[in-house]
Write a sequence for this structure.
């Protein structure tokens, strides 16, 4: 940071793993400009181009994305929105662009809101029967409640008979799981900690709204963009409102909690068990409960049969192992 009053540059921090940083202690009438460098195992890059001078007094109350639009792109959490399902063709409000993906739920396309030019994603679902429609309506109602920076945001929704469309926040960084299996990506414990803090932040908000995700796994955590360590939790199709006696029997075997396998009552600890498994996978690259087949995996989960293999975990901190050990606990009645 360059302080115009001293005519000197100073280093603010060397420990940032995202594209944002809060600068403290600026004088209200001061003038400052900024530049950044990248530090990795090879060394330190040359400083970036300098920003324009910024005065806290002049910019008070102005949104960050208006000051630094290139940094803000794809990083912004939406302002809270009152979403009402509209009975019209989404093409009247959005330009539908190229296909991004396809699955059992339907097709996802990139889209652009005509009025704001905001880049979003349009999830097209064909509701062939009442059950399909109820599932989509349920996901929409859940997402209306879950307005938080670490959760994928619903921006708009449309219902045209059999064709239902959810307009979603657009993220382009790919699955967190892709970074786990990428041999060229060195996932350090410090980076895992940064990911886990965000995951826990999102899960905590869901639980504060009495909602369980019930399908937490690395594939359902997206990086906002390729060069960012900020994440979004996605896929609320299996999420449920917390109610006494709630039981479920769905999810991905190696990330299920024992109460799901045994068809017992689920709770906040069900999601936290899955978070513990995610933490184990991120730190070690291994799955703690993986068996030779799904049946053996489910038995391992039910019995809480896992361990820290010494050769893999020797260089992992006691605190990280303690966190995993405290959430991967089978409750005995």
């Amino acid at each position: 940071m360059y302080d115009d009053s001293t005519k000197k540059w100073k280093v603010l921090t060397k420990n940032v793993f995202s594209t944002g940083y809060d600068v403290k202690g600026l004088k209200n009438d001061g003038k400052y400009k900024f530049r950044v460098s990248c530090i990795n195992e090879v060394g330190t890059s040359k400083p970036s181009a300098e920003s324009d001078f910024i005065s806290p007094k002049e910019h008070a109350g102005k949104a960050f994305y208006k000051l630094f639009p290139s940094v803000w792109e794809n990083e912004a959490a939406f302002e809270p929105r009152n979403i009402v399902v509209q009975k019209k063709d989404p093409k009247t409000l959005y330009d539908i662009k190229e296909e991004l993906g396809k699955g059992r739920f339907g097709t996802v396309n990139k889209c652009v809101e005509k009025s704001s030019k905001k880049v979003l994603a349009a999830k097209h679902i064909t509701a062939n029967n009442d059950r399909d429609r109820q599932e989509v309506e349920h996901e929409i109602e859940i997402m209306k409640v879950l307005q938080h920076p670490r959760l994928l945001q619903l921006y708009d929704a449309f219902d045209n008979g059999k064709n239902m469309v959810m307009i979603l926040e657009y993220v382009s960084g790919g699955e967190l799981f892709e970074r786990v299996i990428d041999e060229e990506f060195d996932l350090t414990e410090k980076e895992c900690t940064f990911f886990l803090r965000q995951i826990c932040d999102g899960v905590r908000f869901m639980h504060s709204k009495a909602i369980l995700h019930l399908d937490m796994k690395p594939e359902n955590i997206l990086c906002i963009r390729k060069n960012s360590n900020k994440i979004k939790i996605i896929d609320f199709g299996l999420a449920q409102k917390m109610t006494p006696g709630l039981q479920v029997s769905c999810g991905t075997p190696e990330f299920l909690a024992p109460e799901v396998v045994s068809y017992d009552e689920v709770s906040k600890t069900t999601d936290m068990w899955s978070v513990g498994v995610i933490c184990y996978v991120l730190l070690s690259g291994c799955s703690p409960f993986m068996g030779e087949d799904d049946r053996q995996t489910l038995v391992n989960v039910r019995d809480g049969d896992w361990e820290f293999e010494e050769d893999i975990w020797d260089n992992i901190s006691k605190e990280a192992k303690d966190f995993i050990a405290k959430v991967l606990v089978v409750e005995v009645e």
Remarks:
- DSSP finds eleven helices and 14 strands in the chain.
- Residues 61-74 have pLDDT under 50 and may be disordered.
- The chain has three domains: 1-72, 90-169, 176-327.
